[in-house]
Amino acid sequence: MPSGNQRDLYMKWCGAVKVTEENDIIQAALQEWRKGIESMLGIQVGSEANPQGLAVAFGTFQGENPLIRRVFGEETRRKVGPEGFAIRTSEDTGCIAIGAASPAGVLYGVFHLLRLIGSLKNIEGLDEVVNPVNGLRMINHWDNFDGSVERGYAGRSFFYENNQFTGELERIRDYARLMSSVGINAIAINNVNVHALETLFISKYLPEVAGIAGVFRRYGIRLFLSVNFAGPMHEGEVGTADPLDPEVRKWWQDRAAEVYAAVPDFGGFVVKADSENRPGPFTYGRDHADGANMLAEALEPFGGLVIWRCFVYNCKQDWRDRKTDRARAAYDHFKPLDGKFNDNVILQIKNGPMDFQVREPVSPLFGALERTNQVIEFQIAQEYTGQQRHVCYLVPQWKEVLDFNTYAQGEASPVKRIVDGSLWGSRHSGIAAVSNTGNDRNWTGHLLAQANLYGYGRLAWNPELTAEAIAAEWISLTFGPDPAVSGVISRILLDSWNIYESYTAPLGVGWMINPEHHYGPNVDGYEYSQWGTYHYADHKGIGVDRTVKTGTGYSAQYIGSNAERYDSVEECPDELLLFFHHVPYTHVLHSGKTVIQHIYDTHFEGAERAAELLAAWSSLKGSIREDLYIQVEERLKEQADHAKEWRDQINTYFYRKSGIGDAGQRTIY
Ligand code: GCW
């Protein structure tokens, strides 16, 4: 809670609120305002201006609020986009005014002002227009109807249990509040792996779905559903799921009409097709444009979207086959289809070509699809980054991806400009991410994993925010404004990805993990599997040759200097060397170290630095709430122990394989 002058300043403005509109979203904004002010300043917000005549006023430009009309002239209004807002401290009218073109914009503006107060910012002299950079700011749940969450590390689903909807609308409302407070405007509520009963979400279970959509609606969030491409065959209604079959098309059109009758602002379908054993158009000799466009036509009359995932690869590969390369797959499948998708189809592309590893290059599909709507897919759930038992703040990773220059359209063509639609003027664009929430009381299992959820929303809203600024906001809003506390937690967060990478995944090699659950070290766990995920370590060297001359040719999927840099063993950045090249253990990196010594050093140092995270956290004992302190302490203890296991297994494996000792003569088993 703020104190002294700061508090007086906030009290001066925030004691009264002027709102005139009855709209549900505006009323939700009003509730948030009252709650937020009450909890941060300990005062009840009234509707009468305080003795100095000051108040906060908010509403849409079209609304009846005279203060909004007076404060914002034509020029300002024109700058405010459909979901943006203007905020101004107006001494003349004695109010801080938030005006927007839509009720959702008003809600975002209110959260903005609450965030300023929660992070002790000055609220006098405010005068700005804030618009979200990305149109679609989406969360994908991998929640199953039985209540489990695929790759969930924060307890069970709050949407479903035991093949029923939980009906826990209070929890779901709190979730919607959380999400809209960071600007999320779209949520797909079921797993992209759509099993038997979830197939019926677009028919039998529509009343329950509509209930959740109603909760979301008050917070400016549109509900999406993942659908089963073989839906028409599910109950034997149609004998095929061939996208060009008229009966199949009719079946989807009828379903779309039913869905919109129940949920008029329904967002659309998310589709995982021909991927990891899911059905899709390939069965019928059709391509992904045929499949996606068929669904797009069904949704089109209602303004719905098809979000079609590009995570398509051969998951039955023979490990002996060194020419087939999973990293190539998305590009090889989708590049030839550029320009063939309907206007309301959006391709959803994972940030890397493999699968959310600790370190991968950026997917070369970014830059390759000039005439296709696209969104990037991140994974907030820490499947491969410590499963919310290790701390791993992912905002720096996401920022690296968004800032990556694709050279698709001249010198300045970063991924973020493809994703926000500006590079090619796409009709739809934005960001999606796999959720890391569950019914754990703190939402994310590891308390510090909340920073990823928060950070994802903030970054989707504005990719220019820095990882440091986002961390600072989250820390202040969660633990209060004490700078000493903030300094410690911020260091922990900002160092964490690098630390995790150093004891798990050297030089861009991935997948040295236990199969299936993906937790903990297992160097050969995926080496002889069918998943296309290999490191090819032998007694002489390690890495995947993805060069043009001697390898899989993947490096040529990049444009210009990116392709050249990755293809060249001399120029390839160290952190991706083993992703692109197979090299001897004695190969010397840009850092001056050999590959093998790099492996040893990073693993010894990584485990030490993991232990230091715990030590740093311990310094906070007594400065933050005891229960929060303990939650994190427990996880950091586990991390420190587990990092040693990683260190010893990886170092021992490579010592035994290579026969080369550690220059530092530290213990290897
Ligand atoms: O990373 C893999 C996960 C699967 C997931 C798949 C996907 C939902 O291990 O659990 O399935 O990606 O993204 O479709």
Give the helix/strand class.
Answer: alpha/beta
Strand composition percent: 5-15%
What is the CATH class designation of the largest domain?
A: Alpha Beta
Task: Please summarize the sheet with the most strands.
Answer: 8 strands, parallel, barrel
Strand order of the largest sheet: 6-9-10-11-12-13-14-15
Helix content: 25-40%
Q: Oligomer, anyone?
A: single chain
Average of per-residue pLDDT values: 97
Helix-strand layout with pairing:
Blueprint: H1 4-14, E1 17-18, H2 24-41, E2 55-60, H3 66-71, H4 74-79, E3 85-90, E4 95-100, H5 103-118, E5 127-130, E6 136-140, E7 160-161, E8 164-165, H6 169-181, E9 186-188, H7 206-217, E10 222-226, H8 231-234, H9 246-262, E11 268-271, H10 288-299, E12 305-309, H11 329-334, E13 345-350, E14 374-379, H12 395-403, H13 415-419, E15 429-434, H14 450-461, H15 467-479, H16 483-504, E16 541-542, H17 560-567, H18 577-580, E17 583-584, H19 595-618, H20 626-658
Parallel strand pairs: 1-2, 2-4, 6-9, 6-15, 9-10, 10-11, 11-12, 12-13, 13-14, 14-15
Antiparallel strand pairs: 3-4, 3-5, 7-8, 16-17
Q: Any descriptors?
A:
single chain, 669 residues, alpha/beta, Chitobiase, domain 2, TIM Barrel, Alpha-d-glucuronidase, C-terminal Domain, 3 domains, five-stranded mixed sheet, 20 helices, 38% helix, globular, binds 4-O-methyl-beta-D-glucopyranuronic acid
